[in-house]
Amino acid sequence: MNVLSLRNVTKTYQNHTAVNNISFDVPQGSIFGLLGPNGAGKTSLIRMITMITGVDQGEITLNGKRLNPDMILDIGYLPEERGLYKKMKVGEQLMYLAQLRGLTKQDAKRDIKEWLEKFEASTWWNKNIEELSKGMQQKIQFIATVIHKPKLLILDEPFTGLDPLNTNLIKEEIFKLNENGASIIFSTHRMEQVEEICKDIVLINNGELMLEGEMNAVKQKFKENKYSIEFDGMLPAHLKSDSFSVVEDTQKGLVIQVKPGHDSNEFLQSLIQEGIHINSFQEILPSLNDIFIKNVNNKI
């Protein structure tokens, strides 16, 4: 089942088409990567999903029903730009936002205190937002986003302003929220974070869908038949190379690329026949960053 589905969604601003006929599904319970370079259309998509702006053409459904204003409390949105009131105190602001999202005063106070304790921020209640560092403000905005336990979380660059320690802290909470049933859309330009966190991805560029799918399936699609092999001794000079080419010669072994029409077993068998002791043999899949750059550059 899909928590969110987009079908032929288009959004145009004056003479600029920000989103052009895009369709994809976000599986229930997934951590889903929404990727694209600056100006790709990610923000326009997010604004339509959160009903900040409307769809010009196409349809968006949440849990199988057409998106409508009554569903807004089922969504939590952490924007890249901070939207906190600088002159308000932390506790006062979180209480206001929690009650705005449907919590009673009693429940809001209890849940906010629990979150502040998790983030070692219990003493921040009476501090003004403007007194906090960027990282501290990001923690407060994260609490405001999840306090009402939304079914769908949209996190746009959630680690902005955070040091490595606090990045891991927020990351752990994202995983916990997902384990507790929240589906999460994770939008970022940091490909290494997507590889670590997301199972499914879409890549958009210039308002159009470039690729989509499960992370490992996408990597398999763009693999280049490269392998890393470590072995004892030297590679025999007479070893046939009609089935492979050497990409890199390392201290411990080789990186090879198997030529079209051949497979890696041919190379392995040739080494075994030569009596070479193999220590490791591993396929090298492209990084998401490599796939991202290749697809975006091909469309520029």
Notes on the structure:
The protein has a 6-stranded mixed beta sheet with strand order 6-7-8-3-9-10. The protein is elongated, with a radius of gyration of 24 Å. It has helices spanning 42-49, 90-100, 105-118, 134-146, 164-179, 191-197, 215-221, 264-273, 288-298; strands spanning 2-13, 16-27, 31-35, 57-62, 65-66, 75-78, 152-156, 183-187, 200-205, 208-214, 226-231, 244-249, 253-258, 278-284. Strand 9 (200-205) and strand 10 form a beta hairpin. The protein folds into 2 domains: 2-220, Rossmann fold (3-Layer(aba) Sandwich); 224-284, Alpha-Beta Plaits (2-Layer Sandwich). Helix 2 packs across helix 3. Helix content is 32%, strand content 30%. The mean pLDDT is 90. The protein is an alpha/beta fold and 300 residues long.
Q: What percent of residues are in strands?
A: 25-35%
Total number of domains: 2
Gyration radius (Cα, Å) is: 24 Å
The biggest beta sheet is recorded as: 6 strands, mixed
Intertermini distance: 35 Å
Number of helices: 9
C-alpha geometry: elongated
Keywords, separated by commas or semicolons:
300 residues; alpha/beta; Rossmann fold; Alpha-Beta Plaits; six-stranded mixed β-sheet; four-stranded antiparallel β-sheet
